[in-house]
Amino acid sequence: CLNLQHVLDRRGVATCYPTPMPLSPRRFHCEQLCDVALCLSTAARVVGNDVSADDAELLTVTGANEGGKSTFLRSRGSSQLMMQAGMFVAAESFTASVTNGVYTHFKREEDSSMTHGKLDEELARMSEIADSISAGCLLLCNESFASTTEREGSQIARGVIDALTAADVTVVFVTHLFDLAHSLYRRDNPRYLFLRAEREEDGTRTFRL
């Protein structure tokens, strides 16, 4: 922790001691939250994000390629782990409910052995998660089920999201699937929050949500 703090201080990265909250009701609020791993691997200034998602059971993140979606997802997971380990986090402020576990489902490269297709591999990993995840956990999904058609991928993702949120699991889902994001948005559920990676008119990425 001391070594990490010294490096982040030298790089001008804001840090704070987080405020852990009870498991229920859900709480998540941050200002200038950064991905600590990115802060260590680049000399450039890392852009932080402000998010207020109290009571949100689902965060859906969409927007431009290379716009900061996956970076935000990593910052959300690493900050949760750091808070629950009693550490500081890379943010100006950070408040979150504790969780019973943090699970991740990130897309992977094709199976080089060709034992399984990409969708089969994704479904197998999600099945393993479903067997062990429980109420009060956090699931982070990055482009899950994008290896099949948009319609099929969206249908699978909706089923997973509905089952897990019904089981009191908080889900953060980064996706390019318009059908999925739009169908969730049309539900007008007050416990859903939608974030979009910003892109200026000339195509410039700000890396803000």
Structure description:
The protein has 209 residues and is an alpha/beta fold. It has 6 helices and 9 strands. The model has no long low-confidence stretch (mean pLDDT 93).
Number of helices: 6
Order of helices and strands: HEEHEEHEEHEHEHE
Ranges where pLDDT stays below 50 over 5 or more residues in a row are: none
Neighbour order of strands in the largest sheet? 6-7-8-4-9
Helical coverage, percent range: 25-40%
Class based on secondary structure composition and strand pairing: alpha/beta
What is the molecular shape? Answer: globular
Strand content: 15-25%
Task: Show the helix and strand layout.
Blueprint: H1 2-10, E1 19-21, E2 28-33, H2 36-41, E3 49-52, E4 58-63, H3 69-84, E5 93-97, E6 102-106, H4 118-132, E7 138-142, H5 150-166, E8 170-174, H6 178-186, E9 192-197
Parallel strand pairs: 1-5, 4-8, 4-9, 6-7, 7-8
Antiparallel strand pairs: 2-3, 2-5
Helix pairs in contact: 5-6
